[in-house]
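Sample pair:
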Amino acid sequence: MDDVLPAADQLVATDQRHLIHPLHHAKDHANPRVFVSGDGAMLHTADGRMFIDGLSALWNVNIGHGRKELAAAAAAQMEKLAYASAYAGFTNEPAIRLAERLVGLAYDNMAAVYFTTSGAESNESAFKFARYHWKRLGKPNKVKIISRRYGYHGVTLAAMSATSLPNYHKMFGPVVPEFLQVAPPYPYRWPGNGDAGIGAAEAVEDAILAEGADTVAAVIAEPVMGSGGVIVPPASYFPRLREICDRYDILLIADEVITGFGRTGQWFGLGHWGIKPDLMSFAKGVTSGYLPLGGVIISKRLHDVMMDAPPDEKFMHAATYSGHPVCCAVALANIDIIEKEGMVERAQVQGDRFRAGLETLLSLPTVGEVRGIGMLAAIELVQDKGSKTPAKGLGPKVVAEAANRGLILRLRAASDGPPASGDTLCFAPPLPTPEATLDRIVQIVGDSIQAAERA
């Protein structure tokens, strides 16, 4: 019948009637892509098109799409034990095995894991761990959390308050009290000729002194600021930040939701600077996105304080799906694949090669900077290279041109700051993406920028 819509169009029409999406706006969702399958670095849509996944979906499909080993791990665990509570007094083998594995892979001061289902939930939990720690030690006023501008830590209420991207606050404010932001270690946009690493670390110290160290619980920092534009700090930043946190007795939370599980060419991002956090939040790459899982790994220092708590000061934080056996079984299989296929080492080598390819685009008039580390990269667009005047509105055109050519990218829109920044194209291909596909990404991006410039 003529009035019967094709299957893909029917799905879209039903979606638009009944499904609310993350970051929802009807105009943005007028012509959505309906993904039906994936293989490696490629995604296939219901209308028969194929796209290169230039961002590992949402920074999370580290091992690539379509790995049957993870489907098999999930099925086997579901048949054996699909779900069991992990509340105190109950446990299950996959959660136990994964906790042990993660502590072994993480920084050598780490001791124990609390499991969540997402990065935002992990950071919410980390804030509660920090406050719990200080209350246990008789310092109940140490509650404030310091984050950095351009930082992204999720958009649940406390995580949103640590996230310093104003668009996430506008329709949901006011933010939670006792959260404050300072300047980021953003070398391309650092004012003057000073060291952005030292300057940004000292901005944290200035905030601690202004607020009073006895009121500050923790500093939260992504090793590389991902959604904020893949901002890689100078080598001086994290050593100085760790020193400042130690001096004022403040906890350091590493938000490794994006930078974990090989993404930067290390198992975890702070390994590049030889720094150990007090708490580490993770998610995304732990299962390569095949099932929702996240968590917080805490140091021996925090764990000892928790284990010595009297009954009336126990850790009253919980979630139904903490330690979910199927999610944990899939994470174990995912980590096996990362190890067996040498993906951490590959991310460093192929990431350097990929970034070198992107750097050939610096000859284009609107490409202000190419930056990145491992299989994380970004191109910041400008109107003028000399003044670094931010390009605004060019990025969406580039993303659209790239999609027309078969590449999915993510855009960090220009900001008025401080510091001001241009539209930024973000890249995080799956770790095993073939060299030919990485080269194709570079070609498409170059063609798309030039097409957008002409338009």
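The two ends are 41 Å apart (CA to CA).
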